[in-house]
Design goal:
By secondary structure, the chain is an all-alpha fold. 68% of the residues lie in helices and 0% in strands. The chain is elongated.
């Protein structure tokens, strides 16, 4: 599907090379776009990576963060962040009651989940970009500084190995 980008991608091989800034930006883009519950997250993340000169493979792989196990926490974070932007109820209106979950009846869970999501409404929708931004920035920091820490530790290990070899050669 990306054959039409082949000419551009061949001219810019840095989009596929593993270097700290490109991979960190690719992961941030993938996670930021992956938060949105829309189809075609991977192609969108890959196009954003090409546009921003990030690692394309890292962007595509990072969209896999959203899966059935992580969807509920991501949506909860989105609703929580969106509640700061969109007020839950206007003055003088009735505040909706919390959704009653019947944990002993799994067949009632889809209906309760749908009721919960519709009760979040605009706050959830406003929260998706905020959660994408927050998780993307956090992912960028973790990858960038984690990679820097690994480089520092490897350089330190090599330096210690050189010292040990020099000591053995002397003595």
């Amino acid at each position: 599907g990306f054959a039409w980008l082949g000419h551009y991608l061949r001219e810019h091989p840095r989009l596929w090379v593993l270097h700290r800034r490109g991979v960190a930006l690719g992961v941030a883009l993938g996670i930021g776009i992956g938060v949105f519950p829309v189809p075609l997250q991977m192609p969108a993340a890959m196009l954003a990576a090409v546009a921003l000169r990030a690692n394309v493979a890292a962007a595509a792989a990072a969209t896999w963060l959203t899966n059935p196990f992580t969807m509920a926490p991501i949506w909860a974070l989105s609703a929580w962040l969106g509640s700061f932007v969109v007020p839950r109820a206007a003055p003088g209106t009735v505040v909706p009651t919390p959704v009653e979950w019947v944990w002993s009846d799994p067949l009632s869970w889809p209906g309760a989940l749908w009721e919960q999501i519709t009760s979040w409404g605009p706050a959830l929708l406003a929260g998706f970009p905020l959660a994408g931004l927050a998780l993307g920035v956090a992912a960028y920091g973790v990858v960038y500084w984690g990679w820097a820490l690994l480089i520092w530790r490897e350089r330190r290990r090599r330096e210690q190995g050189r010292r040990v070899a020099a000591d053995r050669a002397r003595g």
